[in-house]
Task: structure prediction
Amino acid sequence: MTQHDLSAELLAPDFYHYVSAPIATVAAGNDALVVDWPDGVQLSCHRFWLRENALGQGGIDPATREGIMDPSELSDAMQIAAFELNKSGDLRVTWAPQSADDSVISTYHSGWLRHIAEGKHLPESWVPAPEAWNASTLSAPPQRNAHAVVKDNDALCEMLNDLLRWGVCVLEQAPTEPGFLNELAARIGPVRDSNFGLLWDVRADVNLAGDAKTNTTANTGLRLGPHTDLPTREIPPGFQFLHCLINEADGGESTLTDGAALIEELKATCSDDYEILSTRRWVFFNRGPGIDHRFSAPIIDPLSGEGVPTIRAFYPVRAFPDMPDADVGEAYAALRRFHALADDPRFELTFRLGPGDILCFDNRRVMHGRKAFSGSGQRHLQGVYIDRDEILSTARAVNRARAARHKL
Result:
C-alpha cells in the first residue's frame, strides 16, 4: 500500500503557510465531498479535483508544487473508497485501488481548503479592488517615499495597493540620476520592452525647440491631451513609471484622468456614447522606419471582460475607422465628447512634477497628459513600462506576506 499521510507536518499543494482551520463535518455529495466548517462556510470538492491536488502519487509534485497529472489519465475508476477527518480536522481520503497492490491515501490541509472556500485563490484575491475617482474625490495622487519603497516591503505593499486601488501614485524624493527606475523596477518585476526600449527618455530643451528633431510628440513642447500609451498593441503596457530628472521649463504640468470614472459617467448620462465607444473599432497604427505596429479595437476595450476596461485613446496613432461607413459620423461624435470629458476639470487632476518625483500609473485605466510648455530650460523624464501581471503578482505576494506576519 502506498501511504501518503503528512499529518505530522501537513503540506499544502503550494508554497504558502496555512493556519489550521479544522473542518467540522464532511459528507458525500454528487461525485464530490462537501466539507463544512463550524461557522457555516462550505466547500464542494469534486473527486477529480481532489485527485489532481493530492500531494504526491502523481497529483501535485512535492518539489515543484505543480500538477503533473495529465487530464487524459483521469478515470471513472478513480473513486473515493472512504473519507474521514483526522484528529487535526484535515480531510483524509482513501482512493479505490487501481490495481491489487495499489491504494492511495491523501490528506488535505484544512487551512488550504478554507482559503479556497473563502475565494482567496481567485485572481482578485489579496489585492484591493479598483475605486473610481474624480477631481473632487481624489484631489491629488497618493504620495509615497521612493527610498522606502525600494528598501521596505510594507512601503512597497502600500505603493502597489495605491496603484491597484486608484490607478496612480507619486513617489517622492527619488535620486535625480538617470537609471533609478531600473532599481525601482527590480523590486516589482521585469520591465516590458517596446519600440522605445526598456528605459526610455522624454526629453525636450526649449532653447533648441526650433531646431530639435524628434520622432515623437512627447519630445516637443506641444500639449499632450489625455491619452494612454501604445494602443497599437494587442495588450498595451499595464503600468507606466515616469521619473522626473529635470523640469526647468515654464508650464508642462502633468494631467491625469481616471478612465474608470469616465466609464461610470458615460453609463449614467450617455449610454449611447458608451455603446459606440466600446463596440466601434479603430485601427491604431504606429508609423516609423522599420516598425509597423497596428491593432484594431474600440476606444473602450473590454479585453478580458473583467475589471476596468482598457482605454485606447492615444490620438496621434489612431489612424483609421474600422467600422461600417454609416457608423463613422456617430463614432466621431462620441469620440469628441469622450475626449472633452477626459479634459473636464471635474475629472482631470493637474499638478507639476519636480525633480525626484516618479509618477506611477495604470496605463490601461488612467489617461495621462501634459500642458504645453515654453520659456527656457530643459525638461527630462525617464520612463519604463511594467506589465499588469507583474504588478498583481508582487502585490499579492507582499500583501500575503504582511498578513502572515500580522497573524504570528
In short: Confidence is low (pLDDT under 50) at residues 1-8, 209-213. The radius of gyration is 27 Å.
